[in-house]
Design brief:
The protein has a seven-stranded parallel sheet. The chain contains seven helices and seven strands, in the order βαβαβαβαβαβααβ. By secondary structure, it is an alpha/beta fold. α2 (42-51) runs parallel beside α3 and α3 packs parallel to α4. 39% of the residues lie in helices and 14% in strands.
């Protein structure tokens, strides 16, 4: 049976972020997710979850410098230290929040850059994350973003994401199946869902 989570980044925007936990609980939600927790101490967020009987189910690693066009750094060659710092930061938050899944953001690939180099960097960083997260029982998700939403994002299709999951070859790394992006790029959602069965760990 599906368990529905309120996305506090996109929902209940009529109130400040920290008040959205109460709003979600009053609306009947038991689970929440949002893009990033890093503007707040993990302990403060955990207190909100506990106060309203909520379970955190997902958040993202840092996007990097959004003002410079970054949308994740884990696939950028030469940025391995930054990527792993973001991964370690996310792990600390996930442990405190008892969050079972973290989405690791890949990167935007600038025109003219080698996709193959980005792929190798991303695979190695995800393997690093998988090994760090596994002792804590925490899963990793990877998400494709359709080009009209995020041009030149490293993962465009659900099949791009599946390829990376299979290359990483770790049992705590999964596809994050976003039906909006999947419909924009891949279509045929029922067949796609069947194709990815057992490979995805979170649906949006």
């Amino acid at each position: 049976m599906p368990k529905f989570a309120a996305n506090l980044t996109m929902m209940f925007n009529e109130v400040p972020f920290l008040d959205r936990f109460e709003a979600a609980a009053k609306a009947g939600f038991k689970y929440v997710e949002y893009l990033w927790p890093y503007d707040y101490p993990a302990e403060e967020l955990k207190a909100k979850l506990d106060q309203y009987g909520l379970t955190q189910v997902l958040f993202n690693t840092s996007a990097g410098d959004i003002a410079k066009g970054e949308w994740g750094v884990a696939a950028i060659p030469g940025r391995e230290a930054d990527a792993r710092r973001h991964i370690d930061q996310a792990l600390d938050y996930a442990i405190t929040l008892n969050c079972p899944t973290v989405h690791i953001m890949a990167a935007v690939v600038p025109e003219g850059k080698s996709r193959e180099a980005y792929k190798q960097t991303f695979v190695e960083n995800i393997r690093y994350a998988a090994e760090k997260f596994k002792p804590h029982g925490i899963n990793i998700c990877l998400e494709a973003l359709s080009p009209e939403v995020k041009p030149n994002y490293f993962l465009k299709s659900q099949y791009d994401t599946l390829e990376i999951v299979e290359l990483v070859d770790r049992d705590n790394v999964f596809v994050q199946l976003d039906y909006f992006h999947a419909q924009n790029v891949d279509g045929n959602l029922s067949r796609l869902t069947d194709k990815l069965n057992g490979k995805f760990a979170h649906v949006q």
